[in-house]
Amino acid sequence: MSDQPYNPGSDGARMDFSAAMSYGDYLHLDGILHQQHPLSDAHDEMLFIIQHQTSELWMKLAIHELAAAREALKAGQISPMFKMLARVARIFEQLNNAWDVLRTMTPADYTRFRETLGPSSGFQSHQYRLIEYVLGNRNPNMVKPHAHLPEVKALLDAELARPSFYDEVIALLFAEVDGPDPAPAPQLATPHKPLPEVQARWQTVYENTDTYWTIYELAEKLVDLEDYFRRWRFNHVTTVERIIGFKRGTGGTSGVQYLRRMLEVELFPELWHVRGEL
């Protein structure tokens, strides 16, 4: 065995990147790794910043996948859409795991830098809002915190003006499953409300899975996605309660009480309600 340190270059690995694209160049790491700017000397503020920055990156990918999934659905490309939906569910699994890291921060740790946040809050994440809008939870009041950012406001307004992903799923459901009712109009700038005619179609699917296997599989993909989404919301509530108790949020919300209200929101209500009818 040689006493010399291993040299990957001797096995063909490139070692000189002075005139070639490197890993850091491709990922623009210099820009990314210099975007953490704590405003206090508190040790845990770096954790807080990186937690939220990485969550925003995962949400950016979720938006990318959901936008492509909606277009694939409209084009009848069901198998690629399934893969995209499965990926979004796993993205929310990653977001869930991130809470475990943030929960290592204690109330005493957070208190040291909380005032530096001012009125900024995760409540103001336009990417999170866009994910909800794409999936069908469309509260137009939530555009207001972004009124000072014309491009962001235009992005959210544009999403409210088009059918949600779930609206497109319902259109497919009514096209594939016969029934006495016409397809409902898309629920645009309003949270999706459960419709009995939609639930009736889902019941037909679940009672005849062999006949409607593709639609049945789509239904379960949506339930899987919302399952992970609900866990993310629950972990958010418990993390906030663990760190700040029942204080108001930095953005002015009621904190834990507000987050608990969000736990009651159902993205695809008919798919959950139909289970009690089977």
What does this structure look like?
The protein has twelve helices and no strands. It is mainly α. It has a single domain (40-277), classed as Up-down Bundle (Methane Monooxygenase Hydroxylase, Chain G, domain 1). It starts with 22 loop residues before the first helix and ends in a 5-residue tail after the last helix.
Give a brief description.
This protein is mainly α and 278 residues long.
Give the SSE map.
Blueprint: H1 23-27, H2 29-32, H3 45-74, H4 78-102, H5 107-111, H6 126-135, H7 150-160, H8 165-176, H9 196-207, H10 213-244, H11 256-262, H12 269-273
Return Rg in Å: 23 Å
CATH architecture descriptor: Up-down Bundle
Number of helices: 12
- Low-confidence segments, given as residue ranges, are none
Percent helix range: 55-70%
**Biggest β-sheet: count, sense, barrel?**
none
CATH level 1 name: Mainly Alpha
Features:
single chain, 278 residues, Methane Monooxygenase Hydroxylase, Chain G, domain 1, 57% helix
